[in-house]
Write a structure and sequence with these properties.
Layout (H helix, E strand, L loop, with lengths): L5 H17 L19 H4 L13 H13 L5 H11 L4 H8 L3 H19 L10 H9 L9
Amino acid sequence: MDDWSTVQVQDRLESAADVFAQLPEVRPKGYVNAWPEYLHSFADKVGQTPQMRRPRPSPRQITQADEALLWLRWLEKDDARLLWLRANRRPWKPICWELGISRATANRRWQYGVAVIVWRLNGRRVPSKRSMTYVTKQTLRGGQGGLGH
């Protein structure tokens, strides 16, 4: 993709969080269960509500999730944490409590973090002498007018 948008970045981060949530948990080496797997007969299952499971993520989804996770390296530690918590659909209030910031600050830093990722994915350098508001507005505007200068 040549032109990334904030919506595409947000969607990719959310899908990455979903993919990592679906993967099997990591267990310590040597962890075994000595109990045999219980096989339910048809009679056992009659009258029970079926348990639907989502399919495991495909290799392509896992690769895209890994790529999206690497994007967070471009951000400050707290901003990356904020974006990852929001990608996991965590409500704003616990995020603000955890990071010790106000709701307005959290939203502003979240928008800036997404904007930085968009700039970097579009092959542009994020200006260090510009404000967070400038970077965010330029991203929302479509990136016209001096990106990368």
